[in-house]
Amino acid sequence: MSIKDWHQHDRPREKLIQFGAASLTDAELLAIFLRVGVKGKSAVELAQDLIDHFGDLHRLLSANQEEFCLAKGLGLAKYAQTKAVLEMARRHFESGLKKGELFNSPELSAYYFSQHIGHSEREQFACLLLDQQHQMIHFEILFYGTVNQASVHPREIIKLALKHNAVAMIISHNHPSGQAKPSPSDHSITDLIKQALTLVEVRLLDHIIIGDHGRWHSMAQAGEI
Length: 225
What we know:
- The protein is of the alpha+beta class.
- Helices cover 44% and strands 15% of the residues.
- The chain contains nine helices and five strands, in the order αααααααββαβαββ.
- The protein has helices at 12-19, 26-34, 43-54, 57-62, 65-70, 76-95, 106-117, 154-163, 184-198, and strands at residues 124-130, 136-144, 168-174, 203-210, 216-218.
- A five-stranded mixed sheet has the order 2-1-3-4-5, with helices on both faces.
- β3 (168-174), α9 and β4 (203-210) form a beta-alpha-beta unit.
- α2 crosses α3 and α8 (154-163) crosses α9 (184-198).
- The chain is elongated, with a radius of gyration of 21 Å.
């Protein structure tokens, strides 16, 4: 049975319009994006097959071009559309977080960093520079690759803070493996950066570790800074 033969309240598009996007399952949301199914499967059934194939919606949306295009019902055009949708979502969120936005909770910081580095397939280290009231001054991704004392240079972080006259800073890096738990190396580099920033009177407020599936860890919230 195709979706057009379903009861109106069960059709993903109509269900979204009547009850809101939050009422839809992952498969129903993906089905609206796919628009059509394949022979013998509705768009919702195809969507569920794809989610099962990749493991979950996050892994599907984060898949590289080769993995994505090899999946049944997908292809290069869908891959381009997916990346465009993700970028629009990121820009939509960021448009409300321009200079002057107040960062006063680990939840907001974690969500902000997730939008910028959470989908990367390699580790990225980012800095969020704040003023006296913890309002955003500047955001920048400084380092790429394994985050350790050899790859993260406190001198570059200090230079960035002084360049933008920051009073406080929140740092973050992602764990492509998915786990948000900080490693011993994460603790070591955090202590090193905190000591370096103290010398120029810049406070390190937090180090956010970004995992997958919305998982994150605030070292400040955990009493580790």
